[in-house]
């Protein structure tokens, strides 16, 4: 066990855990931020996507020891009331079905738009390729990303 | 206007307190259940709620809470079922709060998500519940104003007596209405007067979803709760021999490691009980990561399980003996056995005319065999369940499509009466049939009982993907007899699978052919299967609709025209009396898709496939357009035409249709779970390929036939036909017919352009 100082959603947090614990489980079990989801544990499905220093990363596969000194944003930190442009676009297109993968999808989309405000279809495909949705909401996700890009 | 008796679901209209001994009505104040869904509600929360019946309560300020009875797994019943209530109650949707009902069948009747039946079977009860509450509000106004009830009208949220100019909000009369007797019969609205049904409403939980609020079982937390994981046998056909828990137990944060029996010996299984693993090892500790690490330190020995026989109830009751064979099965062995069974006579499921004679005199016979592998569900939320079991009661919170069935299993396993078992319905992170099987509720309950604490059990993705409840593997051989003028004389289908046949013998094209023969066969196995989005239909549609495409070509006919000809025959002069589809509605979706897709107007480089199917009481036709980028198909567009009667929430219905199409394309292209010596050969998304955004269609348009027929199923019907739309379009693109799913594997095995 060791103590780690983390910057999550602009807030300093200190946790005492095994250094190998993935960020995902620190968020979910220690910090009660359960919007970030467990899907595969091997960085293949994207349900656990958070933004770390501006990049979309899979929090299930990065140990907490690598998180010190970085800035992490989770779905809970995007906005107070769900009014981030990407969240608003998600509402407008009524994207979710079961909803489980959607936080990860949104975080990938936010990271994409922060680095590339006007993505092409191929840019969107590439940026979202790491996020699986079994409900198959991809067509609406793409529309929502385009709507958010315009706003 | 329709008058309906309220008698059928009268228990729904009684106060909870009046229901002696029937179920529990605890105020479960956590997660989604703790407060209504925060969609934009114009009126705030009232000071007091008045319950008009199980589904409806109204606040003194006019705010309305509606309860969604059925489990939500992404099909959006939590929005659409309350919409039906709101319509008949006659309230403004913007003043409606929605809550998920707990499992409480005495009050809510059928609480089952599956078979695309929620809206179909909920339609009349929900309309009646809404109309009954409205009638009680009218009666309260009549009593207060001392005017005849039949002179009172409503407009959304208000009661009006035109003659005297009196007007009151529902909230003002709700306290009196709640005390009045339930009317014996009530009027339902004319469908033409619907204001809410048929208009798109946003998912009532969209805000919670996009802000990451705790909604799912895996998000649940409670003081003193421990985390549990399980270890099940690594192969079908194996069972636990022994294990050494010492190292796992010594890991940080670990409380207990023990083995447990999922069912007691000699237990008579309920319909949705699985027979996969009878004994598992539980690892219980403080946090998920700690338990995951300890799980890796388990030293378990497994052995070959002997053959076993159990008694299991059918879907409607009637227990029968089920044999679970011994042995470690492999895909290779499955193929050989399926080939062997394909060649033997099957069980005759339907026989019209004299098909044997027709084949004898045929001048040409077209024969094709189609194969499909096992599929894993891969819901994005792995199996998980919360349980707190004490000596005299059990509390569960979990993703479950069929709570009623599992409540019986829990009662038997825990030795508790059903009214001491409370099951609360979590929003499911996907279901697709897999969550009809409630083994996880039993496992979580047994673990909680053993450790004497509330626990949340979480499967790893690997545990989930290798557990079972798979879509079975199937094979179907279609044969068509043609005369010298290419007229169709007879059709013969023989299809089977492990462990079931996919044939629905009275569906199209039965009824359209003078000579028709359907045979089925099955091979038993210890690999467990289960409902998977449109069970059986999801394979047989792909085989049938690919074959009809090839047959149409052989006969020199347009594939849509060919189907319409058959349907015309089935309508005008049907063969047999047990045909379970309406040829006119079936033709209707083909005609609509032909129009909406501009069928016949080919674009350069675009290759089209058409397919249609009827299942779950609804009709769907789909046209898929793709182009080839080298050897890689890019799906440009899909047009679907759907007849499911009245569409309650059109945009959400389209969303689900789009999803089913994407899901189907993914499974058609990539879906496959092979076995070797009983071991599933894929256990996570690095090897099990799921469709991702670049492979999804660039555009999907879902069109609904407009009629006022009572609504039918929608979660499943768009899924089965898309498989053949894919293979038929790929044939147009490559000149190569594909007979083996997954198609990308077959395509990559050597593409030939003919």
Could you please describe the fold and organization of this structure?
The complex is a heterodimer of chains A (151) and B (754). Chain A is 34% helix and 17% strand. With 151 residues, chain A is of the alpha+beta class. Chain A folds into 2 domains: 2-75, Roll (Ubiquitin-like (UB roll)); 85-150, DNA polymerase, domain 1 (Orthogonal Bundle). In chain A, a hairpin with a 2-residue loop joins strand 3 and strand 4 (55-58). The longest helix of chain A has 14 residues, at 102-115. The mean pLDDT of chain A is 97. Chain B has 754 residues and is α+β, with helices and mostly antiparallel strands. Chain B has 3 domains: 2-210, Aldehyde Oxidoreductase, domain 4; 217-305 and 383-458, Aldehyde Oxidoreductase, domain 4 (2-Layer Sandwich); 537-748, Aldehyde oxidase/xanthine dehydrogenase, molybdopterin binding domain (Aldehyde Oxidoreductase, domain 4, 2-Layer Sandwich), CATH 3.30.365.10. Chain B contains 18 helices and 31 strands. In chain B, strands 12-13-10-22-19-20-21 form a 7-stranded mixed sheet, sandwiched between helices. In chain B, strands 17-25-24-23-18 form a 5-stranded mixed sheet, with helices on both faces. Chain B has a 4-stranded mixed sheet with strand order 2-3-4-5. In chain B, helix 1 (77-89) packs parallel to helix 3. Chain B is globular, with a radius of gyration of 28 Å. Chain B starts with a strand and ends in a 6-residue tail after the last helix. The relative contact order of chain B is 0.11. The model of chain B is unreliable at 14-38 (pLDDT under 50).
Provide the succession of SSEs of chain A. Answer: EEHEEEHHHH
Low-confidence stretches of chain A: none
Pair with the biggest interface? A-B, 63 and 68 residues
* Biggest sheet details of chain A: 5 strands, mixed
Separation of termini of chain A? 45 Å
Helix content of chain B: 25-40%
Mean pLDDT of chain A comes to 97
State the major sheet of chain B: 7 strands, mixed
Number of domains of chain A: 2
SS content category of chain A:
alpha+beta
Strand content of chain A: 15-25%
Major sheet of chain A: order of its strands? 2-1-5-3-4
Number of strands of chain A: 5
Radius of gyration of chain A: 15 Å
**CATH homology-level superfamily of the largest domain in chain A:** Beta-grasp domain
What is the CATH class name of the largest domain in chain B?
Alpha Beta
Find the CATH topology of the largest domain in chain A.
Answer: Ubiquitin-like (UB roll)
Structural class of chain B: alpha+beta
């Amino acid at each position: 066990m060791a103590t780690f100082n983390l910057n999550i959603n602009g807030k300093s947090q200190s946790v005492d855990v095994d250094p190998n614990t993935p960020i995902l489980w620190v968020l979910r079990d220690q910090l009660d931020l359960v919007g970030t989801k467990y899907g595969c544990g091997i960085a293949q499905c994207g349900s656990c996507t958070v933004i770390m220093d501006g990049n979309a990363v899979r929090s299930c596969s990065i140990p907490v020891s690598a998180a010190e000194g970085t800035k992490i944003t989770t779905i809970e930190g995007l906005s107070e009331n769900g009014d981030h442009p990407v969240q608003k676009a998600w509402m407008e297109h009524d994207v979710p079905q079961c909803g489980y993968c959607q936080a990860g999808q949104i975080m990938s989309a936010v990271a994409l738009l922060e680095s590339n405000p006007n993505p092409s279809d191929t840019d969107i495909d590439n940026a979202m390729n790491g996020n699986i949705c079994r409900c198959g909401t991809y067509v609406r996700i793409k529309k929502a990303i385009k709507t958010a890009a315009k706003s | 206007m329709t008058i309906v008796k309220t008698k059928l679901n009268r228990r729904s209209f009684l106060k909870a307190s009046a229901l002696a001994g029937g179920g529990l009505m605890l105020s479960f104040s956590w997660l989604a259940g703790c407060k209504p869904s925060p969609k934009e509600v114009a009126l705030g929360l009232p000071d007091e709620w008045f319950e008009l019946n199980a589904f409806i309560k109204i606040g003194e300020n006019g705010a309305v809470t509606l309860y969604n009875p059925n489990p939500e797994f992404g099909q959006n019943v939590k929005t659409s079922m309350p919409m039906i209530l709101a319509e008949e109650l006659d309230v403004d949707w913007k003043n409606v709060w929605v809550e998920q009902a707990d499992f409480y069948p005495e009050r809510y009747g059928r609480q089952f998500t599956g078979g695309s039946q929620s809206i179909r079977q909920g339609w009349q009860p929900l309309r009646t519940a809404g109309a009954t509450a409205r009638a009680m509000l009218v009666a309260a106004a009549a009593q207060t104003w001392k005017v005849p009830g039949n002179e009172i009208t409503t407009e959304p949220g208000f009661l009006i007596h035109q003659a005297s100019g009196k007007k009151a909000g529902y909230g003002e009369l709700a306290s009196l209405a709640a005390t009045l007797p339930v009317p014996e019969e009530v009027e339902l609205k004319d469908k033409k007067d619907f204001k809410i049904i048929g208009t798109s409403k946003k998912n009532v939980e969209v805000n919670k979803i996009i802000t990451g609020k705790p909604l799912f079982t895996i998000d649940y937390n409670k003081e003193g709760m421990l985390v549990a994981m399980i270890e099940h046998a690594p192969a079908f056909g194996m069972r636990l021999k022994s294990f050494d828990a010492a190292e796992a137990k010594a890991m940080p944060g670990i409380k207990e490691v023990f083995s447990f029996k999922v069912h007691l010996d000699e237990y008579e299984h309920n319909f949705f009980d699985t027979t996969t693993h009878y004994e598992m090892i539980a690892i219980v500790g403080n946090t998920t990561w700690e338990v995951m690490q300890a799980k890796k330190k388990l030293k378990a020995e497994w052995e070959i399980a002997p053959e076993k026989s159990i008694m299991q109830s059918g879907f409607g009751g009637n227990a029968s003996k089920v044999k679970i064979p011994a042995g470690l099965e492999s895909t290779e062995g499955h193929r050989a056995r399926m080939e062997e069974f394909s060649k033997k006579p099957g069980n005759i499921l339907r026989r019209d005319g004299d098909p044997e004679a027709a084949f004898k005199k045929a001048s040409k016979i077209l024969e094709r065999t189609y194969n499909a592998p096992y599929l894993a569900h891969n819901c994005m939320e792995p199996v998980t369940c919360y349980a707190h079991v004490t000596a005299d009661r059990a509390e569960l919170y979990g993703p479950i499509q069929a709570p009623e069935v599992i409540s019986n299993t829990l009662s038997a396993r825990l030795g508790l009466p059903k009214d001491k078992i409370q099951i609360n319905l979590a929003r499911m992170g996907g279901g697709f049939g897999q969550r009809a099987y409630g083994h996880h509720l039993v496992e979580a309950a047994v673990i909680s009982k053993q450790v004497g604490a509330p626990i949340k059990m979480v499967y790893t993705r690997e545990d989930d993907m290798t557990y079972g409840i798979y879509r079975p593997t199937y094979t179907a051989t279609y044969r068509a007899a043609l005369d010298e003028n290419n007229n169709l004389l007879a059709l013969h289908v023989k299809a089977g699978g492990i462990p079931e046949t996919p044939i629905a013998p009275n569906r199209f094209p039965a009824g359209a052919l003078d000579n028709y023969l359907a045979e089925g066969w099955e091979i038993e196995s210890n690999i467990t299967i289960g409902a998977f989005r449109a069970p059986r239909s999801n394979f047989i549609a792909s085989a049938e609709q690919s074959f009809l495409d090839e047959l149409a070509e052989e006969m020199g006919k347009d594939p849509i025209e060919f189907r319409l000809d058959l349907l015309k025959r089935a309508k005008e002069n049907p063969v047999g009396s047990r045909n379970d589809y309406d040829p006119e509605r079936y033709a209707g979706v083909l005609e609509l898709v032909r129009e909406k897709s501009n069928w016949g107007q080919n674009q350069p480089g675009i290759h089209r496939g058409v397919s249609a199917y009827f299942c779950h009481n609804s009709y769907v036709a789909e046209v898929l357009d793709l182009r080839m980028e080298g050897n890689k198909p890019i799906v440009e567009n899909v047009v679907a035409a759907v007849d499911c009667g009245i569409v309650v929430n059109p945009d959400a219905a389209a969303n689900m249709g789009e999803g089913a199409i994407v899901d189907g394309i993914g499974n058609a292209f990539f879906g496959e779970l092979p076995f070797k010596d009983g071991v599933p050969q894929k256990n996570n998304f690095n090897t099990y390929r799921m469709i991702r955004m670049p492979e999804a269609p660039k555009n999907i348009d879902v069109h609904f036939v407009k009629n006022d027929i009572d609504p039918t199923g929608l979660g499943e019907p768009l899924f089965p036909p898309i498989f053949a739309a894919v293979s038929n379009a790929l044939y147009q693109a490559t000149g190569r017919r594909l007979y083996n799913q997954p198609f990308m594997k077959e395509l990559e095995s050597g593409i030939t352009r003919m």
